[in-house]
Design goal:
By secondary structure, this protein is of the alpha/beta class. It has one domain (5-52, 91-239): TIM Barrel (Alpha-Beta Barrel), CATH 3.20.20. It is built from 9 helices and 9 strands. The chain has helices at 20-28, 69-73, 93-100, 121-131, 145-154, 171-178, 187-194, 212-220, 231-238; strands spanning 5-8, 33-40, 46-48, 106-111, 138-142, 159-163, 182-185, 204-206, 225-228. An 8-stranded parallel barrel has the order 1-2-4-5-6-7-8-9, surrounded by 6 helices. Strand 1, helix 1 and strand 2 form a beta-alpha-beta unit. Helix 1 packs parallel to helix 3. The longest helix is centred in the middle third of the chain and has 11 residues, at 121-131. One of its GO terms (biological process) is lipid metabolic process. GO terms for molecular function: phosphoric diester hydrolase activity. Pfam families: GDPD (PF03009). This is Glycerophosphodiester phosphodiesterase.
């Protein structure tokens, strides 16, 4: 099975995370997949940002849920990373979908609804994907497993993945109960699950792998996909 490289929040090691600059860099790098985080603004617009608050990655303050799209769109989402990215905007989800139209890149949409349970997020994400014809080119993931179950019941044709920071007690059972096709987890959790019979033979994607040593070991033997902030480095290893 082909080992796949997912650009974590775009090329976030060299560009401001979850911005169009990071997304376009990942597309140009010819990655297998791109991972982004999706949340909901006060007016219902789907926006791409990891944190629930804008403070860390913009020049603004406050929670995304309390800000309108116009307010979010006025923020600088690049200057915190480097002066050369000053003026980079917070992307709307639709902007990312537009950029991926006509490519074969898989989009991993992490629904950021584990701390804030945005109403109808599942429906809104699906409708956007459907509008751009990308519902078969996506993997939906979340730490909110109830949300994944809802998504699975409403839109069974869309691929899902369980996000888990720690090892799942019974990985196969957890996947079956949600209708998930993969598990997204850290390397240590993966290794622990692999020690059990219930953890063998499953599809894993490991986050976030940036260490040259770990990437080198992965290139030689392991059969999981990776999320990395430096996809060009990972691609060199896997495509050599």
């Amino acid at each position: 099975m082909k080992k796949m490289v997912f650009a974590h929040r775009g090329c976030s090691g060299t560009h401001p995370e979850n911005t169009m600059a990071a997304i376009h860099a990942a597309i140009e790098a010819d990655v297998d997949g791109i991972e982004i985080d999706v949340q909901k603004a006060k007016d219902g617009t789907l926006v791409v940002m990891h944190d629930e608050a804008v403070d860390r990655t913009t020049n603004g303050k406050g929670l995304i849920k309390d800000l309108t799209w116009d307010e979010l769109n006025s923020l600088d989402a690049g200057g915190w990373f480097s002066p050369k990215f000053k003026g980079e905007k917070v992307p709307a989800f639709d902007e990312v979908l537009e950029a991926l139209k006509g490519t074969s890149i898989i989009l991993n949409v992490e629904m950021k609804n584990d701390l804030i349970d945005y109403p109808d997020l599942e429906q809104d994400v699906y409708e956007s994907l459907k509008r751009f014809g990308l519902e078969k080119q996506v993997v939906i993931s979340s730490f909110n497993h109830r949300s994944l179950s809802r998504f699975s019941k409403m839109f069974p044709e869309v691929e899902l993945a369980i996000l888990s920071e720690s090892p799942l007690q019974n990985p196969k059972e957890s996947m079956a109960s949600i209708g998930a096709a993969a598990i997204h987890c850290p390397l240590e959790a993966y290794r622990e699950m692999l020690m059990k019979e219930e953890g063998k033979g499953l599809h894993y994607r490991i986050y976030t792998m940036n260490s040259p040593t770990e990437l080198g070991e992965w290139g030689i033997q392991d059969q999981y996909d990776v999320f990395t902030d430096y996809p060009l480095e990972a691609l060199k290893i896997v495509r050599e």
